[in-house]
Amino acid sequence: MEGVAGENITKNGGSGALRSDVAIRCAKAALLLSSLKSSPARRRDTAVDDDDDIAVRIRVISNSLLRNFVLAITILIGILKFDDQEKEMKKEIGDLKVEVARERLRNKRIKIFGFLELLLLALLFAVSVFLFMLAFEAGAS
């Protein structure tokens, strides 16, 4: 089965594929942050020292900080969603394990009662044959 990031999901619930997907998203976010820090507009605006340009530089820096903050919040929300999904998956796996155990127990009981029914029929057949033989011996004498 294929995971979100295209990796194989293991038997332990596929948490490796989901974690690698989060790691890929974090790496992309880090690359985006580094590209925002070294953007050409920021380098051009920070090179000028006039009073009017200081306000522009402050706006550019505050916009960059705001973008970085929004990006960081987005990453945190993604990680929190991942944790919630992982908890839900673990709970669902636990519920399914309990259901499988109950089904196995039910199947064992069905097998045992089926065997006992067969044994009871064999015993009933043996008793009826014995009684039939006694009836013929009593009638023959």
From TrEMBL:
Name of protein: Uncharacterized protein
Protein origin, superkingdom: Eukaryota
Keywords: Membrane, Transmembrane, Transmembrane helix
Organism, scientific name: Malus baccata (Siberian crab apple)
Chain ranges passing through the membrane: 65-82, 112-136
